[in-house]
Amino acid sequence: MSHTHVEDEAAIQAVLVDSYRAWEAGDADAMVADYTTDATAIVTGSLRDGREAIRTSMAQGFDGPLKGTATYNKQLSIRFLGDDAAIVVSESGILFPGQTEVPEAGKVNCTWTLEKRDGQWLIAAYHNSPVLTPGQ
User: pLDDT tens across 15-51, in order?
Assistant: First the structure.
């Protein structure tokens, strides 16, 4: 990995940490601040097409069933596709009030696609799918 990719990896991780912190704060605007305007998110099978659609969906969640939640996130890998694109794979889950661990059934595998635009890493796409135990 080149020195540039070491710096890029740190910048990408900072983008993701900012998103996780914004979730914990229930701040939909801050959560999508590092998304491209044309970003997509596929969550529980539904497509959110564009940063504003993602923001609206998250704001509704933070005002409703996601109020007071946090997230568990474990980066599994990062792969660069040239100098201005990367794919991050992580395991994540929602921590509801009172929970200290995400139940296995609540964990999801996530794919984040990030793109470097004008020197800044931004989230261009996000997708998650339930973690299946071996044999499922």
Answer: 999 999 999 999 999 999 999 999 999 998 799 999 9
Q: Give the global pTM.
A: 0.92
Domain count, the chain: 1
> Is 47 exposed, middle or buried (CB count within 10 Å of its CB: 0-12, 13-18, 19+)?
exposed
Pairing of strands 108-117, 120-130: antiparallel
Q: What is the pLDDT of residues 41-99, one digit of tens each?
A: 999 879 999 999 999 999 999 999 999 999 999 999 999 999 999 999 999 999 999 99
Tokens encoding 14: 């900072």
Beta bridge partners of 127: 42, 111
Question: Is 46 among the domain residues?
Answer: yes
What is the domain extent for residue 80?
3-110
CA atoms within 13 A on the CB side of 7: 8
3-class SS of residue 26: coil
Cα(58)–Cα(108) distance, integer angstroms = 17
Q: Which residue, 77, 65, 70, 67, is CA-closest to 110?
A: 77
